[in-house]
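Sanity check

After download, print the first record. It should look like this:
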Amino acid sequence: MSMGTKKGIEIDAHSILSMDATSTAKAIKEGNLSCYDVVNAYREHTIQINPIINAMVEDRYEPAIREAREKDKQRDGADKGPLFGVPISVKEAFHVAGMKTTGGVVHRKHLVAREDAAVVRKLKEAGAIIIGKTNTPMLCFCQETDNKLYGRTNNPWDVTRTAGGSSGGEGALLGAGGAAAGIGSDIGGSIRLPSHFNGVVGFKPGKYQVSEEGHFPVHGHPLKERMSGVGPMGKSVRDIELMYQVMTDQPAQKHSLNNVEIAILPADTGIPLSPKTKGVLHMMERFLSQTLSVNRTVPPYFADSAQLWQEMMSVDGGKEMKQLAFNTDRPNVFASFTKEMLTKHTPVHLYLSWALIGAKLFQPSAARLSKIKAVMEQGDATLANYLSHRLLVFPVYHTGAPKHGNVYREIFSIRKTFLHYMPYVAYANVWGLPSLTIPVSTDENGLPIGVQIMSKNGNEDLLFQLGSMLEVHFRGYVRCTRSDA
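Expected structure tokens:
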């Protein structure tokens, strides 16, 4: 289907689906696309693909179409914002006025938000149109996306494989071209794993850089708050940079890549890494060494990151999550887990009940908690200096997207296998670092492989510069068409 415009340039619907948010906004501003054409193209596409991937759990197509038509009447006037008319999807965890915020919890299925989350409000003020909300695991408490209310989200590249979590619905929808861009949240790889598995660009901001007002659930403990980040997901690094500037109150600081060192994690750290991913890191080293200062090194505290992450996530023994998950004053997590294992007919998903058991098992003692706080204070000072003129390049996960259930089994094992599989993503969470994930290659199954670039707060411009270099030279975002009906 081709779409005529007032300038006579025709852009078909499939081209719209592959355009990033920046080029979409530009086409609308220049009159080469109408807001209605763009929103309707995404609406029709998502209606086709969503039954296959189950990424969008609540749409707002009718209001979005109305808003698009209204914006088309306005666009000949003054500048309406950098995202004017751009269709955005939103992780279910964020309040959108008039839409549900359930956390995938059955007894919350009728709860409707009255106000927008802070980031949703800012994106709307920048001209974006919200087209729907995307799936998460229960209470965003797992790195795979499945819950008892909305079901499981599938990876568009291979529906037998995970989309990741907890922003898995967002990653799957964007990977399939179901929105121009979106927003997620990340306390344990929850933006970066879905970005890596689905082949999209994602950014976890550093600690305290973006407001979490209107996010459900709330991370009530300071040790959890420092690990969490609300950030953009999309199709290009320039989109991520634009959206981040809309979402944050921190002004961008400009730097030169010529003044920094690129530290790529060695492939032989003793934790799992697929041969293909090792090859990707070697390719990156060869490419970047042509123009920049590059070495292979393990940064401070890397070996401790997974253990610290697990203890910090378990700081309250899962008390807050347990109260939210069970619609009773006296829940029995062990009984719920056993019943779910046997019958699959409880309101609490197996992933969450086992994670809650783990939170109780790994809850740090008062003495250990005191030590963790001391380590945080010392580590923050050490890394502020270490990362002053340095960027880190890490894998995101040891493989491309595994079959459904494998990530859960690898991370939530009683054998503490999280120590082998979480360090890559846990590092940025524990130390509150900004981390940008870019698709750079594919694995032996044709599934996307991403890498993440990290540094300290204030070095975001350097992350975007390096990310743009990698995006141009390597793979970048490629819309998945395997699930197109």
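If your output differs, re-run the checksum step. Summary of this record's structure: The CA atoms of residues 26 and 348 lie 45 Å apart.
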